[in-house]
Design a protein that fits this description.
This protein has one domain: SH3 type barrels (Roll). It contains 2 helices and 5 strands. The model has no long low-confidence stretch (mean pLDDT 85). Strands 4-3-2-1-5 form a 5-stranded antiparallel beta sheet, with no helix packed on it. By secondary structure, the chain is α+β, with helices and mostly antiparallel strands. The protein is globular.
Length: 126
């Protein structure tokens, strides 16, 4: 009896359109930060190294290098604090989780860019 109620609540709190990005893509996450009574938007850009969960529980991990030190941040996909997620570069990932990038530094962290076919470009425009 409770399961349909929980599903209904989850559907209410999910975002209608989550930007289509995959593991390996370079993304900009516009995240709303509240400091006291002020509110601002901070952009966290990096490579998406993991996506997990489904529905309201979905989350993704973004990794970037700051002064030679790796920084990872896990974002809930349907969080009301996320303004938008912009895909800057499409990376071609062979694995579902790119945890091997943690051991790499500099140019070794780059992924091959995904070649978009003519059909994929036409369907993206629609």
């Amino acid at each position: 009896m409770e399961k349909p109620i929980i599903e209904e609540l989850n559907k209410m709190h999910q975002k209608e359109s989550t930007d289509d990005f995959k593991v390996g893509d370079t993304v900009d996450v516009h995240y709303r930060i509240i400091e006291g009574d002020k509110e601002r938007i901070q952009i966290f850009n990096g490579t998406c190294i993991a996506r997990k969960g489904s529905g309201i529980n979905a989350s993704f991990t973004v990794r970037r290098l700051v002064q030679g030190q790796g920084v990872e941040r896990i974002f809930p996909l349907h969080s009301p604090r996320i303004e938008k997620i912009e895909t800057k570069r499409r990376g071609r990932a062979i694995r579902a989780k790119l945890y091997f990038l943690r051991d790499r530094i500099g140019k070794a962290t780059r992924l091959r860019e995904e070649q978009r076919t003519k059909y994929a470009l036409e369907s993206a425009e629609k």
